[in-house]
Amino acid sequence: MKRLVLVLLALPLILVVYLLLTQMRWKFSAPRKSPALTNGTNPAATNHVEVQVVPVAAGTPRPGQPLLGETILRDYANSNFPPQNDLTLMSRLMENSLLLLKSAGNRPLSANEDWAALWHGENSARERFLPDHHPALNPQGQLVDRWGSPLFFHALGGGRFEIRSAGPDRRLWTEDDLQRNPDGSFRRGSQTDSPNPLRANR
After folding, report:
1. Domain with 180 in it
2. What is the Cα–Cα distance from 67 to 170, expressed in whole angstroms?
3. What is the CA radius of gyration of the chain?
4. Could you give the CA distance from residue 68 to residue 1 in angstroms, rounded to a whole number?
């Protein structure tokens, strides 16, 4: 009689243990589902592709993304705008690059070649502002006006510059020269105050 009572009492406990073991076995033996893809494709039909991340060096443009200089000089040498617009855009790129490259203010930036080198990535951040083939650059890497003549940069100190274009005759220090002053005003030909290095050497 006592044995029958013990069996009856132990039977529910044995059933509970059996059910727990069955559930655990089913859980660990069931195949794991792949996470659903967002585009609704079947995971089994998708090929496994390894993506290699390539680090982008400073100053390297991402595909399809223009450099800062390209954006600022977008309308450079555009015949729909007067030549004054070219010198204004050039001045704007000078100001923006100096703001972005704080250390550039510590280096001498006076000649055409200094600015061209800076915008070609020769700076502490190796930041590139202009591509090799741009209307503002000639094959020698100099910054040029819309007529293809190298621009003349005159540093006045304190981050102030004059930019001079040789004009349509492509000769500096003649009557058709165009100069942009640091305050945004313009002067032509004989009105300019910039020193003429050709006369100074005479």
Report:
1. 68-194
2. 29
3. 36
4. 95
- Establish if 124 belongs to a structural domain: yes
Q: Is residue 163 part of a domain?
A: yes
Tell me if 100 is assigned to some domain. Answer: yes
Cβ atoms of residues 180 and 84 within 8 Å: yes
- The vertex-43 CA angle with 27 and 26, nearest 5°, equals 10
Residues found in the chain: 202
Residue 43, in any domain of the structure: no
- Report how many domains make up the chain: 1
The residues near 10 (Cβ < 8 Å, ≥ 6 apart) are: none
Angle made by CA atoms 14, 18, 22, in degrees to the nearest 5: 175
The tokens of 2 are what? Answer: 């006592």
Contact 83, 145 (CB under 8 A): yes
pLDDT tens per residue, range 62-88: 567 899 999 999 999 999 999 999 999
Global pTM?
A: 0.64
